Amino acid sequence: PILKALVACESSLANVTPLVEACGPNTAEVAMYCIKRFVDFKELGISEASVSQLVERISALYAAQSKPLYGPARVLSALGTTLHIVCSIDQLGRESIASTPSEWLMVWLAAFAMDVDHPGLPNDLLRNKKSFISTLYSDKSPAERHAVAVTLQLCRECKVSTSPETNVFFSNVVVSTDGQMRPSIEEVARVRTAEIVNFSRQQSDRAIAAGMLLKMVDMVVLTSDHGFSKSLKSHQRLALADEKTLTDKLALAIGGPAEVCTYQEALDTFLRIFPSLPRTAFQSK
Q1: Mean pLDDT per segment of 10 residues, for the chain of length 285 residues?
Q2: Closest CA relative to residue 218, chosen from 229, 204, 207
Q3: Which of the residues 31, 46, 90, 204 could staple to 112 if both were Cys, CB 3.0 to 4.6 A apart?
Q4: CB-side neighbour CA atoms (13 Å) of 244
Q5: What distance in Å separates the CA atoms of residue 45 and residue 102, rounded to the nearest whole number?
Q6: SS3 for 212?
Q7: Sign of CA dihedral 210, 211, 212, 213
Q8: What is the pTM of this model?
Q9: Distance of alpha carbon 101 from alpha carbon 104, whole angstroms
């Protein structure tokens, strides 16, 4: 049933709901399907067994999550939605997200692990409460940076060896999903990478594009009638919109100030990056 639902997700978002229902708390099988669909392990140079162990460890953290909003159902919806969108993009669009097996591995790890071990509160509340995690990361995207730190630590423990450039790529993808970042995602990402490693403009652009894609996925997951949000009551869906409106979040996701960027303008910008993506997937929202 899981494999059947995954194949069906490639052609329609409506099949995300059967996927979530078929999997229960089992997120590892879905994550491995997505990774194997786009990553050649022989070319990658990392054993499939090591990546499978990593995925199982991340899956266990989601299963243990006490906050349902950041548990298995949400990540399954995100993976199913990402799978559908990536399968809808042509080759040129895919190359704007990732161009090597290691980058594709990191894109799928980001889709899988961007909410791993989530503290259960949005970044604004973490900052306002002066939480340990917010202080640890200097109030800059604390939830996202914590997910990066946890995932890269698990990579080391599972012997999934990654280069400094690959780690920075992964970090930028995940941090770029923080729609409340200011100044723009592009500026923050490029400054950070320039300080850490010799990271090309093209790599930075791909990481940001992948992060924008995952931000779009998160918004679809939280507002659509499929998968995770289908089981939520209406007031919970409104709460999930966070302090920002959907328009604000999408505007921020492309690095523009919300007050001068309408939803339509933000969507137009996103679809210029991924021209083969069907506009109808987002038009109603």
Answers
A1: 88 85 89 95 94 96 87 91 87 85 96 91 80 79 90 95 89 80 45 51 80 80 64 48 44 41 56 63 51
A2: 229
A3: 31
A4: 21
A5: 9
A6: helix
A7: positive
A8: 0.78
A9: 5
